[in-house]
């Protein structure tokens, strides 16, 4: 399984970014997909997850601002991030779970105040 994330960058507080993750592998549609992030000096934390049936969960810190979605036909997931805050600054990682966790290389998101 390979996961390729894209869409990070530098944005001012209040702005928006959209992250995308393309996955290889034949079991994407059956997998739990998610976005995690890790800020400097902090542990990696879950941001949002989406199940194979489309059920979602969000960290309290991003509820109402971030939206996760998936396209099983394209083996992709997206994270729409609105009303970004400086505390959202982190490296964001795409994750696929199918009995084992698979991680992509992270993409940097920097929110300036």
Strand content: over 45%
Count of individual beta strands: 11
Q: Judging from the principal axes of the Cα atoms, what is the shape?
A: globular
DSSP helix count?
Answer: 0
Proportion of helical residues: under 10%
What's the N-to-C terminus distance?
37 Å
Report on this model:
The protein is mostly beta strands and 113 residues long. Helix content is 0%, strand content 53%. Strands 2, 4, 5, 6, 9, 10 and 11 form a 7-stranded mixed β-sheet that branches. A hairpin with a 4-residue loop joins strand 7 (66-71) and strand 8. The protein is globular. The termini are far apart. The relative contact order is 0.33.
Write the layout of secondary structure elements.
Blueprint: E1 3-6, E2 9-12, E3 17-23, E4 32-38, E5 45-50, E6 56-58, E7 66-71, E8 76-81, E9 90-97, E10 101-103, E11 107-112
Parallel strand pairs: 2-11
Antiparallel strand pairs: 1-3, 3-8, 4-5, 4-9, 5-6, 7-8, 9-10, 9-11
